[in-house]
Write a structure and sequence with these properties.
361 residues, alpha/beta, Glutaredoxin, two-stranded antiparallel sheet, 10% strand, binds zinc ion
């Protein structure tokens, strides 16, 4: 799926902020306001962002293109990013400052800075999803799903020699590694509880809890997409199209299965609670909660790190016809382990997401 707005050649104009000279790179689908100093990030971002947008619009269900370019602010340093944030969001700036490395999305604009050649792209795909939905969806998704899909959109394999990246939702070492950790520490949050919370609540309980929250909502999207033989996929499609068309509130309000008046009110006003889960997926919450729990435990079973590295569903049955070449089998664990364990990688996207205001527009 191509974006209608895409250009073959970018239009580059001077742009400055706080005395720093930068540029605005208009690639049609996005306008990147940049004070980047790394020429590699600058170049690759021009291919990465439109490719990510194609992926948002096709990965789960066909979704419409934005009417206008998405504005991205991409600073070369944290100091510049903080300076911009203090000016744009004076009330929230102190909170963002505390969160550490990351980025956020506000009013459909993604505000990021250079946190390295891998993490900057990961965060750009995560915040890019929030920027997209804030511009295109008439109703907000529930917080757990909005964040879960943002994490789902992070999985990627970089393009070589200027080729576009390939987005592969299962190929997400940070979320997978964290999920494994959550299960190993016996800190898995039951689904009924998971849908009550927000990243901000999770952050209040510390960084580990926050990373665990993201890992679990990442797994939840995979569960809804392919778990239980695909039973929940239709509900996911209906929910996404209701978000685009602005039908979620009305659907919940008139629903006889979404729950109490207060639960429906919380789902509509604050995008939390079990009402969306009941209306779109399953009235029997203990059952779906148990299914989700089993799905998560199956994902993190021993040996699945290799499948994540290859971008395959850990639950896909291994085909007898697929030959395993010794070269592949040897190379995979060696490369995947450091990537999964790298602390820089695990921190960046999560920090961003906590800062993402997902308030209804
Ligand atoms: Zn987020």
């Amino acid at each position: 799926m191509k974006n209608d707005l895409r250009r073959t050649e970018p239009i580059i104009e001077p742009w400055s902020f706080g005395g720093k000279n930068g540029e605005c790179i208009d690639i049609g689908t996005h306008r990147v306001h940049s004070t980047l100093r790394d020429p590699v990030i600058r170049e690759r971002m021009q291919i990465f962002l439109p490719t990510a947008l194609d992926h948002y619009r096709s990965a789960l269900v066909p979704l419409p293109a934005p009417d206008e370019p998405i504005e991205v602010f991409l600073f070369g340093s944290r100091t510049e990013w903080l300076g911009y944030t203090r000016e744009r969001l004076p009330q929230e700036a102190a909170m963002y400052e505390k969160i550490g490395r990351g980025g956020y999305t506000v009013e459909g604009d993604a505000v990021l800075y250079d946190i390295g050649r891998w993490d900057t792209f990961t965060i750009a795909s995560h915040e890019g999803w929030h920027a997209y939905t804030q511009r295109v969806f008439r109703h907000s998704l529930p917080v757990w799903l909005e964040e879960g899909i943002a994490c789902y959109m992070e999985g990627v394999r970089g393009g070589v020699d200027g080729a576009p990246p390939t987005f592969i939702p299962w190929r997400n070492f940070e979320r997978f590694g964290e999920l494994r950790d959550v299960v190993a520490r016996n800190r898995l949050i039951p689904l009924e509880e998971l849908v009550q919370g927000t990243p901000q609540d999770a952050l209040a309980n510390g960084r580990t809890t926050l990373l665990g929250y993201y890992a679990q909502v990442w797994a939840l999207v995979h569960f809804l997409n392919e778990g239980e033989g695909g039973r929940y996929r239709r509900g996911l499609e209906r929910l996404l199209s209701d978000a685009v068309e602005g039908r979620i509130a009305g659907t919940l309000w008139e629903s006889s299965r979404a729950g109490t008046r207060n639960e429906r009110r919380m789902a509509i006003g604050r995008q939390v609670g079990p009402a969306v889960l009941r209306e779109y997926f399953a009235e029997d919450l203990p059952r779906i909660s148990a299914e989700y729990d089993a799905f998560v435990r199956a994902i993190v079973a021993r040996g699945n790190g290799e499948k994540i590295w290859r971008g395959e569903s850990p639950l896909k049955a291994i085909s007898a016809a697929t030959p395993v070449t010794p070269g592949t089998a040897n190379a995979t664990p060696a490369s995947s382990t450091p990537a999964t364990a790298a602390p820089a990688n695990s921190l960046a996207p999560a920090a961003s997401s906590a800062a993402t205001p997902n308030a209804p527009r």
